[in-house]
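Supplementary Methods, section 5.1.

A reviewer requested that the exact input to the structure prediction be made available. We therefore reproduce it here, unchanged from the version used in the analyses.
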Amino acid sequence: MPSLFDLSGKVAVVTGSSRGIGKAVVERLAEHGANVVVSSRKAEPCDAVAAEINARGGGRAVAIPANISSKADLQRLVDETHAAFGRIDVLVINAATNPYYGPMGGIEDDQFRKILENNVVAANWLIHMAVPEMIERGEGSIVIVSSIGGLKGDPMIGAYNISKAADFQLARNLAVEFGRHNVRVNCIAPGLVQTDFARALWEDPEALKRFQKGAPLRRIGQPDEIAGAAVFLASQASSYMTGQIIVVDGGVTIT
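The structure derived from this sequence is encoded token-by-token as follows.
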């Protein structure tokens, strides 16, 4: 009997996968047999991650850089994935933007627009570029990496949190639209993870200490600790799950 987590023969596209959570996700999907597309803005880091995966064995990896703020880039990502592998079975939307750290009253209009456009509008673009073939095959899994920030308020990352809450509703709404075609849409909501993207939240020793004190596991997460949820949502193990949020936060939201 094949493993519920076996992804052999599947093709997965992961945005923002040259480092941090995205890198961990693309590595673990390949480890479980998927052919994977490593994608972020810059080609060189994508090439390096793809080379590491191919040297390790498992699923094959290709690098296709793309800027999530460019609709043309995202279409090229889909087209070049088809040229490399012929299909897309799994789409993991991990890339996100947060150019502003501070109270909502101080954010510039352009900054707010950029957050919403890159974290929500671009996600919708890419999903609708990839989903027609999933609908035609009657199978597919779309995963949006959101954040526990979408579940609560924060005095310093409010605009980002608004975009992440919108991602939850994007997943729920598309799950309703696509469900009759057996295409599933779910979210992962990580807590504080030690990545470059979240550096402003963990590099201050005093702030980190306060955070750890309030977390039941008494620590922040590591990128690879989020990847297992992505493997689950990409695989048959989650075949009856759609429109849901998996919180992976060390217990922060239960306290």
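The mean pLDDT is 95. These observations are discussed further in the main text.
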